[in-house]
Amino acid sequence: MARKHKEESHANHERWLITYSDLITLLMIFFIIMYSMSQVDAAKFRAVADSLNVTLGGGTPSKVDLATSSSGPSFIDSGSNSQVPGQSSKPPVITQMNPENTPSEGSGQNDLETLTIEGIKTKLDQFAAENNIQTKLVSSIEERGLVVSIQDTLLFASGSADITSAAQNILKKISTVLKASPNYIKVEGHTDNLPIHTAQFPSNWELSVLRATNVLQILGTEGGIDSQRLSATGYGEYRPVADNKTEAGRAANRRVDLVILRSKYELVEPGSSSP
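Predicted structure:
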């Protein structure tokens, strides 16, 4: 009996090896599971994310970007697009975004608007060159938009606001180009500083306003531009672009400007909704 008790006592001292081996096995399984979880199937993850987004949010599936590391995709968002096949993967770059430098939501629209304005300018410049009126029809891109300056001699007789028949055809051709953009168009009348005092025009104010209004009528009725996009303004002699002391300067100041406003300036127009 004493020998049997001694053998059982000896066996009890070695049972810790069983517990130790179990712990080692569990740790190995734990690290295997952790390693397998770090390897995310990008396609399956996107499918699950899209499905959850539709189910919970009720909207369209949104793209989930996954950063690419040497061990495979992970949940760290790098903000980069998916890798193009054949290109070497680059480590994700983590940058701190400054709200002032963050691109606005409408940046893509602004780029398209800029391309449209530049395209309109190119067509108008080509039209002016083909008709040998480059010095009388000049377009320029400014902060507020595209400004098309038409000298008065191309549109009116001296001291008159009546548009000539030749000028009507020119304005119709210009209208076909301006219709490519949905932006507002301001028609601005300008004069030189030589005073005018007739029964029809007591001052340069009336002359500039009526000239702008007559041009607007051609753009809307004959040119087919939506009247809601058009407005007329008369500045008289008070917005010169050249020195009125010379004949050339006064000729440059006697003009009608067609201003294709950038969309951001439409917010200050009457009837526009606030941002």
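Summary: The CA atoms of residues 105 and 111 lie 12 Å apart.
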